[in-house]
Structures are given as structure tokens and as C-alpha cells.
Amino acid sequence: MRLSSAFTIAGTFAGAAVLAVVAAGFAVSAIEDSSRRAVRDTLDRAGLVWADVDSDGLQLFLAGTAPSEATRFKALSLAGTVVDAARVIDQMLVQDAADIAPPRFAIEILRNDSGISLIGLVPAATDRDKLLADIASATNDVPVADLLDAADYPYPETWPDALRFAVRSLGKLPRTKISVSAERVEITAMVDSPEAQRQIETELARSAPDDVRLALAISAPRPVITPFTLRFVIDGTGARFDACSADTDEARDRILRAAGKAGMQKRTDCVVGMGVPSPQWARAAELAIAALADLGGGSITFSDADVALLAPEGTPQSDFDDVAGKLEADLPDVFALTATLPPPPDTAEPVAPEFVATLSPEGQVLIRGRVGSETSRETVRSFAKARFSSNAVHLTARVAEGLPRDWSIRVLTGLEVLSYLSNGVVTVTPDNLSVQGNTGRKSASAEIAQFLSDKLGGAEKYSIDVTYKKALDPVAGLPTPDECEAQIAEIQSTRKINFEPGSATIDAQGAAIMDDIADILKDCGEIPMVIGGHTDSQGREEMNEQLSLARARAVLDELRLRRVLTSSIDAKGYGESTPIADNETEAGRETNRRIEFRLIRPEPVPDEQTALESLEEPGEEGTEAEETTQDQPTE
Q: 3-class DSSP state for residue 184?
């Protein structure tokens, strides 16, 4: 009886144990399934469908290949929000970096009065300290805020060239935004004047790397014109503007159309600027130009709101009165008209005194004629020496009595005007100031008219016959890169840069030709060019390639010694790879041993988005704006 009870009790405990084990198994399975489903759902909602989830008891395993280390860490973090992070076992792999497309390296460089900011992504191999040092050197230590990120990926071969060009450009532009990528440099900047705009556009275009596309948007603010001047002349040579100013593009077009109706045929620029005395400026100019056309000649001069009409000699009094009276009635209220009809010449009058200052193309200044006193004579001498070279002034003017009271002012004004010219002559008489000559500045005629109106008044008679010469323009007069290449080729067609046998030492006769080539390159400025060294086929190919490179570098060094800017010139050795004659003959081998100067011409590159656009919209192709610089009025 007792034994039976013992078996019963033991069986009960055994059954309970089995039930407990079975229940625990079901509970663990339920926990495994729920944990796995919960983590799977969380990862799917986050878009991490590449991750595999499995469980073994309370442990949760994450497997699969993550696109990047960041996404692997994200998967672990999300799983840790569903179950205890200690239960998560990481068995994930990360995709091979070689299979991942490298990022687009780009920099946005912003410069203003407060300093320079660098924003973007650069290769990890970029020497950041050297970059900052180069920027400091180019900009005279302007403060730099380095906000760049770096990525350890290979970079395109053109990246260093584009970055160096951007840093050089930064030194020329105090207010600019430069977008840099490996294939493209886009420069947006503001300069002080149209002349500076033309000069900087020329310099940047010449020095751009051959394999980097350049987009320029250089603008110049509208100038403040004081006094606001317009001078229109009709004489024996035709109708022309000595000075033309307008307050808007529409006003400029209206004024030029009025001048065309009055007989002006030559294309003329009209400066759009600030400082106009009235919004009715264009209307007043149209009326005045039409009035001058009705007279058939003379000049009309605006100096702010003062208008001076000078009729040609011999105009009938009735015609003059009709035209001047109508113009005075029609002009807007703010404008005041002074109309003058010169009297017929009196042949009985004595010869009028004159003062003549001549500037030669060599810079010599000859001053002759009459001055009012010895003090005035010394004043003229000192003033001329201050405006021109002290050794270039030759004074033969004599002291005379009976000169007009304002003679000294007119004489000094004439000397001042002469400094606007490259060469020419200024003649001062009691009733006229005449300016004739050549200049390399397109705006010189307008500047002279403004200056004379300011100093003498709009009613005074003066004539301007100044011709713009492209050859005298310090920017437009520069030879084109193609012309530079042709000039060097012409020198080398009759003379040759020779070296000592088997060496990179230029022979004794090479100095003269290097002098001539250096003179050409100094006039050309910074143009992208390669100096190529070539050899004949004698000797080993590797040795010939090294020798040709050494010779090309020797030529480059000779140019540096002659103070030629060589930052855009490269030296390359081609060895025997590009013969231009038969290497089987001595004459052919002599021809193949040569130095060539070749322009580097850029290849077209597809438009790309800017650096900031790339950073804001990764993976999307941006639409590039039109590259052509907006035309600006230059005169």
C-alpha cells in the first residue's frame, strides 16, 4: 500500500515536469517567433529589406550584406529598439567599397569682405594644410573658414588642376563664388568696372586648365556718372556721340535710335549708370538730338540738367530761333537750355592766341604757345611733369599779355585731357578747346566730354576727335593664344633650339632664340601651353623619353629665368614616339630632335550641377545655367 502511494506521487511529479518542459518549449518558440517578426517588420518599414533575421532561443541573429557601414549600424540600432540589444548577434557583412560608386567631389568657395568659406566634399588625400596655405598666399592671408568634409575614395585626374586654378582665380577676385568640380570650374564674381571685367575674363580664360571647362559670370556694377553727360555732334565727318549716358537699358536704346534717325551710322555704346538728374532724361535727349538734326549741324551737350545747344556758323537766325524756341518749350521742366548761334567770322580781328600740348607715341610731351605769366609757366611745367614723366616734358611756351582771364584754367584743363590719350594733341584758344588723338580705352571720349563739361561748363565750345585703337588697348591689344603659338612657330621655322649632344644643356646659340620666345610669351600673358621635347630613334626608347623630358624642362627653366609667367605652361617628353621625318637619314634625325610649343585646347565637357546643388540633391543630375557671360554696357 505504501509502495503504491510512493509510485503515484512520483508519477505525478514526473508528469508535471514533462508538462512544464513542454510549456516552456512552447513559450520559447512563441518568444522567438514574435521577436523575429517584430524585428523583421521594423527593418522592412525602414527600408532595410536586405537584412535577414533568425532566432535561436532568446538570441536574435542579423545576417545579410549591408550597402555601407552606416546602414549596418542602423540595422543593429533598430533591432535593439525591439528586443534587448544584448540578445542581438551581428552576423552582417558590408559591401566591398570597390563596388560602391565614389562620391562627386566638389567645393563651393565663397569670398566677400568678411573672409572666405570653403564648403563641400574633398578627397581624403587632399592636403588640407597646403590648400589653406595656398589660399592664404593667393589672397594675402584673408581669413578662411574650412567647412569641408572628406571621403576616402579615388579622385579624378583633373581634380588637382581644377582646384589649383580655382585658388589662383580666388586671388584675383575679392567678391566671388567659385564652384569647383573635377571637370568644371564655375566663377561668379563682381568687379569694379567694365574695364576690369574685360581684363579678368581674358586672364581667366587664358589660364584655365586644358581639361577643365570654365564658366564665367563676371559682372560690373553700374557706375555713378558725375556729371551725367551726353554730347552729340553733327559736323563735316558725320553724326557721332562724344559722350553718351543713360539711366536704363530702355533709355539707352531710345537715345541710340534717335541718334540713328539724326544720321549716326557708326555703332556706339552708351553707358548705363546712376546719377541721372531726371527720369525724363531719354525724352530730353531725343528732343535735343532731333533739334540738332533740324539745324543740320552743331553740337548738343547735357551736363546734368544743363543743356547747351551750339548751332553751326552761318545758320539763318530765323531757323535758329525756331529750333531753339521749340526745344526750350518741349524740354521737361527740370532741364535748362542755353542756345548759342556763333557770329560770322570777322577777318579783321587779330590772330587769336593759342596753347598747344602734344603727346607723342613714345611718351614725349611738347608744350608750346602762350601762357599768362612766369608763374603760370612754372605751374604748367610742374603740372605736366606730375601727369607725365619728368624727363619727357619739353616746354617752349612763352609769356604773353592780353590773354583771357580764364586762360590758365583752360590750359591746365587741356593738359589734364591730354593724359587720357595714348598720343595726340590738345589745342586751346579763347573760344575753343580741341582734342585729337588715339587711345586704348573705349570710354576715353566719353570721359573727356564729362571732364570738360565739369571743368568748363556745358555751354563752352570744345571739340573731341579721339579714335580708339585696339592695338593700344592693354587687354584687347593682347595677341590671341593662337597668334602666340603661330609667332613662336614662325621663330622656330628659321631657328632651332639645340642642345649639347646627349644632354639637356642648351647650346650657346640658344640664348637668342629663348629671348625672342620669352618676349612673345610676356605679351601673351598666361596661356595654357605645353613644351614638348622630341628625340630621334637612336638609343633606347626609355632613355630617349627621359632625355626629351629633361630638355623640355630645361626650356621651361630658361623661360622662368627670363621672368615669363609659367604657371600655365607644362613640360612633357615624348621621346621618339612622334617623328615628323625619316629616322633613317641624318637630316631626318636632326629634324626629329626638336622642341615644340603647343597650345592646350580644352575638350567640350557636358554641363554639370554646382557643388551646393550636388550636396543638397545627391544622385540627381542638375541643370546647368547658360554659361555665356551677360553682356554689360562697357562705355
A: strand
- 131 with 190, same domain? yes
Instruction: Characterize the bridge pairing of strands 88-94 and 298-303.
Output: unpaired
Q: Note the pLDDT tens digit of each residue in 557-616.
A: 999 888 888 878 899 999 999 999 998 898 898 999 999 999 887 654 455 554 445 544
Quick one: pLDDT band at residue 629, thresholds 50, 70, 90? Answer: very low
**Measured distance CA(414)–CA(410) in Å, rounded:** 6
Residue written as grid cell 623640355: 552
Question: Residue 614 falls within a domain, yes or no?
Answer: no
* Structure-block grid coordinates of residue 302: 547735357
Same domain, 234 and 150: no
Asked whether residue 424 carries a pLDDT value surpassing 50, the answer given is: yes
Q: What is the pLDDT of residues 477-536, one digit of tens each?
A: 677 888 889 999 999 988 889 888 888 888 888 888 999 999 898 888 778 889 999 999
**What is the C-alpha to C-alpha distance for residues 569 and 577, in angstroms, rounded to an integer?**
21
Long-range contacts of 251-255 (CB under 8 A, 24+ apart): 251/281, 251/282, 251/285, 252/633, 254/282, 254/285, 254/286, 255/230, 255/282, 255/285, 255/286, 255/289
Nearest Cα residue to 518 out of 537, 544, 497: 497
CB 380 within 8 A of CB 367: yes
In the DSSP assignment, the letter for residue 196 is H
Structural domain contains residue 435: yes
- Can you say how many angstroms the Cα of residue 288 is from the centroid of all Cα atoms in its chain? 39
Distance of alpha carbon 202 from alpha carbon 599, whole angstroms:
16
State the cell numbers at 449.
566730354
Cα gap 68→72, rounded to integer Å: 6
Indicate the SS3 state at residue 4: helix
Q: Is the predicted pLDDT of residue 621 greater than 60, yes or no? A: no
Tell me: do 488 and 464 sit in the same domain. no
* Total structural domains within the chain: 5
Answering whether pTM is above 0.85, one says no
Q: Which domain holds residue 535?
A: 481-524+529-599
Type and span of the H or E element at 144: strand 144-151
Please give the helix or strand (H or E) that residue 35 lies within, else none. helix 2-45
Q: Provide the 10 A C-beta neighbour count for residue 553.
A: 17
What lies within 8 Å, CB to CB, of 109 at 6+ separation is 116, 117, 118, 166, 170, 176, 177, 178, 179, 180
Q: 431 burial class (0-12, 13-18, 19+ CB within 10 angstroms)?
A: exposed
Distance, CA of 202 to CA of 427 (rounded, Å): 37
The answer to the question of residue 618 being in a domain is no
Q: CB–CB of 105/122 below 8 Å?
A: yes
- Looking at per-residue pLDDT, the higher value among 137 and 348 belongs to 137
Other beta carbons less than 10 A from residue 30's beta carbon: 10
